[in-house]
């Protein structure tokens, strides 16, 4: 994307006003998407974004500028702007010599979506639409979306690091509306992986569509969710967002350092029930949150955050790690070249236990079974979180009975970790997610086995 | 062309958009939407500048319509080769869409835009040192606001100056510009083993509009008044929503009133024009010609004049919002309600919602509540609201209201209802309209009979 000599020159300019660290992050991203809605392929969209963000660090201050101009002159102008914003006491010339490394993710992309004819992508939309509508006349609306993107990044910094990576992601989602006597209900199914068009060898789009339609139909008969505290069983793969929200964010070192985490100062302590192990793993092959290197050029890692209930470590980016005199954990990510990196999760999951999922359900006389959770939100300072139940059922006498209308679940991260009293042996990853933090969205994955939380608050409308 | 771009840069962008639109082949419509903006963000933390970002960004989105099929492409730059590529891609994408007789670009409708120019050059010319000083000052004010404030997660100064232009081969030509600045702070407070956060913000068309003291006081008050909060038992409650919270409800309602949702059967109010869908106290308009709104504008995303649209009057549903395509399908004119960015095609959306003022202040409405809850924060809005069914369930923090006064703090409880019921259950609307950063204008609202889920 950019010549090594140009990068060295630009980094030299960035360091000229006394910078302690400088970095060039360049990105060339192509997106393609196609949408079918209301029975019709509405449009195909192609997008191209290309540019570089340059940061210069002096003491606790970071100067940042970005440009869509990747010529030497454009990059130098951005480097000067970033350096002016973070002016140190020193000066003079800094020589930066880059050492080129390779990034590897351990598997190859088989079919680059850019090489696939547009007609084949469009054909998937029509198939899913037909399959969803075939499920029943109560399915009144179907929308289907396809997306792929290819993101080429380059990171070079004043420590001599120089690495490039090329990432391909493919996404497919079906949303259905079912209409019945009591109004409308929605159902959704989505899949996304860090692979190419071969994703459609792994999934049958007809089946994905039927899953979405079934979810909407099931909810037509749903009764209002109860309200108040009760035991909650979370289904395999359907509730990883709980741990992303309930503990993942609180283990991000930038929030910890600012005193904005309930997990501050708790490394080495028992923060969860015994048997609970939480991992953030950027190396997890083909998953939505997979990265070869993070957006600061550090290799992805498998980081154990909580082991058998004990808090082992936080997640780190370059700046926080540098301050603490340790290595980054490969969690420095950013939405695009227009953003500064910060500590972000990749694939966050809770390891399986040993119990039979059926027996977890059977041993829960009364409560709620949540098969799929929707998006969530956490206040990291208090640990209080909220997220939506997109598919949930009443548990009565140890059996899954009536479907419930949508409602929120609320709780507190540290409390929930302590209240996990059953872990199934049926681990699965969940649907692809986009994690938002300070206005930046990045792709993340999550996963859980079937598990039970002894008490959570359900926010339904039933008495 | 009936209007003059406000300055040379806007004129240049419009000329660029028109040059792309002029490349339409016979039987083809082409639209170009061009945007260029510059912005600065200063983040202060611990008495230091944590980061200073300055950047200019620009981009173009191109729609090509032929045989009632639409293709779209965009580029995050205005370089000539990227624009040519985007036009070629949009043209290549069009045949893959299935034809729809209503698809097409906007056509000039003769409505003259209401002149508006909120561009104050002092935003763009403000020295960097002044922006830094403001961010540091806000952080200091928050830290000094209360002895229990242990830190400020971040105090931010942001400004943005932007220009856009849209032109089509069907004769549309529009351009606009705007500038604003804003500041916000997120305070952290600790007492014993409890930690709370509280946010405050201020926004203005000019730097001198910023009210740092108000933002700081808000952040401090919100971070410090929840100590000792705990769940209360599940019950039916009345809630009081100050303007920023009430605006959230107004926005949810507005989202269900777009023509696109209605035509696709995804609005709970789709067949209810002329009916009372809300308390007679509620009157809601979407009016980007109201210059008090931070989202005021002359043109919508398709280059049509923005106009005042009445949505609900005295509780009765008046109509829906349309862009060109959804309007044609519904047999209605566009209401000038196309919203968009460079990287997306226009969609129907609310631009500047405003709830008409009722009577009374926050305090007087509070005094009328026997038992209820004052909502300080709502969380889980993106997961807990279903705009198709109208179901709403959110987590809240706030204070109980007892005998007309704010009482003990509550947390870890939910409130739930449906949008349909909440609108009918509005029991009071205040006179205290506040214009919020997103462009919405809203007063205090009191809503009865929600389910509170607690201990």
Structure description:
The complex is a heterodimer of chains A (463) and B (455). By secondary structure, chain A is of the alpha+beta class. Chain A is 21% helix and 41% strand. In chain A, strands 1, 2, 3, 4, 5, 6 and 7 form a seven-stranded mixed β-sheet that branches. In chain A, helix 3 runs parallel beside helix 5 (205-220). The mean pLDDT of chain A is 93. Chain B has 455 residues and is α+β, with helices and mostly antiparallel strands. Helices cover 23% and strands 37% of the residues of chain B. Chain B has helices at residues 8-21, 80-93, 121-125, 128-143, 212-224, 243-256, 259-263, 324-330, 362-367, 381-384, 419-424; strands spanning 28-45, 48-66, 69-75, 149-168, 173-191, 194-204, 235-241, 284-286, 309-313, 316-317, 338-339, 347-348, 353-355, 371-379, 391-402, 405-418, 426-429, 434-435, 441-442, 445-453. In chain B, helix 4 packs parallel to helix 5. Chain B starts with 7 loop residues before the first helix and ends with a strand. In chain B, 58% of the residues are buried. The chains are: A alpha+beta (463), B alpha+beta (455). At the A-B interface, strand 2, strand 3, helix 2, helix 3 and strand 7 of A face strand 2, strand 3, helix 2, strand 4 and strand 6 of B.
Core attributes:
heterodimer; A: 463 residues; alpha+beta; seven-stranded mixed beta sheet; 10 helices; 21% helix; 41% strand; globular; B: 455 residues; six-stranded antiparallel beta sheet; five-stranded mixed barrel
